């Protein structure tokens, strides 16, 4: 049955603040040495650490012998949501020592790129941290400094703990670090990370609960802002002056749909009109190029508030490019999203979004050849057609496939959905992504509820949440 929890690497203790025993410390250190040397099979390492090591070795090519974190490059532009987060986390970090009993640690705030913004702690700890360059304007993303409390938290969906030799880089093995990312409540992209680090001592047990509470407090303030911006975007769509029947949609700055009329919903594969609308809800459009288009338009509008533009956008539903006009929407001086009018090119005099003459019309994105998953201590390369559905459990994504139930290497269901767009996968629930080509039966439940059967032999079903029912019916031709 779906939803069942499966073991990953057996015999590994649960994540907590306890120190590694000398014996376990040695096993992890030896496993790290073998993995860094190229081994694909190691034992006694927690799944979240092993997946992080894989990213460090295969994706980021981080030197495992690194002794100090590198200096950070200039950070990416940030929005008003980041300002809210930085102010909130700075206040929480400054008072952490009073709120966490027994804490003798360094408390650090980083931006979404893993760049340290500020640290709080005793003079002794700040001096020790300086030896590893654990200080302001240094880079602690996984890409720069390997597995660590800050960078791995930014890659994860829940608080993480990295102890001693679980760090990918040798120079950081004297530290134990716990970190949590604060995420945009709409896009789930990381905005910042809050981390507590201790030198050669275990972290207090109260650290992880405190980090969870700090992230929840900060995200509650962001959720209020999401409701506010959702209301403004819906109002902008209602006030739009377009010919009747024009496909219109309001999207946020990440390209997710806030509200679409019936005509646009058909093109985007999302629910239509106000019946499915809630100010803080967002839907992933089934138009991959829209995400990049919106982000580029947002960057353009931040530089030039008077800008609007038009371009051609490839729409899989029509299997062809379609003209679309883009008009940014502001809350004061902040860009909060855009209005899209499909089939419209009324901004003839404005600069086009795709102004590279060699680029040509955008076509379908490249498809992933393989999806990487973890079975105990081995990597499995899956053809997307082998996957029946994916389910998220906190920061883990489980793939239910012809090769069994496997832990995905990708972080977060949104990331997997983006990678598999155009391969017949559809989000049917906040926790489930389904391969429509593997749906064998549709069961109707109470009050119009739907369940998708992907394997009738074992009665394997996936629930469809109420807000996704209309999109599923449309996608399946019901």
TrEMBL record:
Chain segments carrying region Disordered: 1-25
InterPro entries named in the record: GAF-like_dom_sf, LytR-like, LytTR_DNA-bd_dom
Listed Gene3D superfamilies: 3.30.450.40, LytTr DNA-binding domain (2.40.50.1020), PAS domain (3.30.450.20)
PROSITE patterns in UniProt: HTH_LYTTR
A Pfam family this chain is assigned to: LytTR
Molecular functions per Gene Ontology: DNA binding; phosphorelay response regulator activity
Domain HTH LytTR-type: residue ranges: 372-478
PANTHER family noted in UniProt: STAGE 0 SPORULATION PROTEIN A HOMOLOG, TRANSCRIPTIONAL REGULATOR-RELATED
Protein name: Transcriptional regulator, LytTR family
Source organism per UniProt: Geodermatophilus ruber
């Amino acid at each position: 049955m779906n939803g069942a929890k499966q073991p990953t690497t057996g015999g590994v203790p649960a994540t907590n603040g306890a120190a590694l025993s000398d014996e376990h410390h040695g096993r992890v250190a030896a496993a790290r040495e073998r993995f860094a040397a190229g081994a694909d099979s190691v034992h006694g390492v927690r799944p979240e650490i092993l997946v992080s090591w894989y990213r460090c070795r295969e994706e980021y090519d981080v030197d495992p012998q690194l002794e100090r974190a590198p200096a950070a490059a200039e950070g990416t532009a940030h929005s008003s949501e980041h300002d809210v987060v930085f102010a909130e986390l700075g206040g929480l970090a400054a008072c952490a020592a009073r709120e966490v009993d027994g804490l003798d640690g360094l408390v650090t705030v980083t931006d979404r790129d893993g760049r340290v913004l500020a640290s709080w702690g005793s003079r002794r700890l700040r001096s020790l941290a300086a030896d590893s360059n654990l200080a302001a304007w240094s880079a602690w993303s996984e890409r720069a400094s390997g597995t660590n409390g800050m960078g791995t938290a930014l890659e994860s969906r829940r608080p993480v703990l990295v102890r001693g030799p679980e760090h990918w880089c040798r120079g950081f093995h004297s530290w134990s670090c716990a970190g949590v990312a604060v995420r945009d409540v709409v896009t789930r992209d990381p905005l910042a990370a809050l981390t507590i680090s201790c030198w050669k001592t275990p972290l207090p047990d109260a650290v992880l609960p405190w980090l969870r509470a700090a992230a929840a407090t900060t995200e509650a303030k962001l959720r209020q802002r999401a409701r506010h911006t959702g209301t403004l975007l819906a109002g902008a769509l209602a006030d739009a002056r377009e010919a009747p029947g024009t496909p219109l949609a309001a999207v946020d700055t990440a390209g997710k749909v806030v509200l679409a009329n019936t005509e646009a919903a058909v093109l985007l594969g999302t629910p239509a009109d106000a019946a499915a609308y809630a100010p803080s809800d967002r839907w992933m459009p089934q138009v991959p190029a829209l995400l990049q288009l919106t982000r580029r338009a947002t960057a353009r509008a931040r530089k030039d508030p008077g800008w609007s533009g038009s371009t051609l956008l490839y729409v899989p539903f029509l299997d062809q490019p379609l003209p679309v006009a883009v008009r940014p929407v502001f809350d004061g001086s902040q860009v909060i999203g855009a209005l899209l009018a499909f089939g419209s090119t009324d901004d003839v005099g404005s600069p086009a979004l795709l102004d590279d003459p060699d680029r040509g019309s955008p076509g379908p994105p490249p498809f992933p050849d393989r999806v990487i998953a973890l079975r105990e201590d081995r990597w499995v390369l899956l053809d997307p057609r082998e996957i029946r559905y994916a389910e998220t459990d906190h920061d883990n994504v489980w793939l239910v496939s012809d090769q069994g139930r496997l832990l995905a290497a990708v972080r977060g269901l949104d990331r997997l959905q983006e990678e598999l767009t155009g391969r017949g996968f559809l989000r049917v629930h906040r926790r489930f992504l389904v391969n429509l080509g593997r749906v064998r039966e549709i069961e109707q439940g109470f009050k119009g509820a739907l369940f998708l059967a992907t394997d009738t032999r074992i009665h394997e079903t996936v629930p469809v949440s109420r807000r996704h029912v209309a999109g599923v019916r449309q996608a399946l031709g019901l």
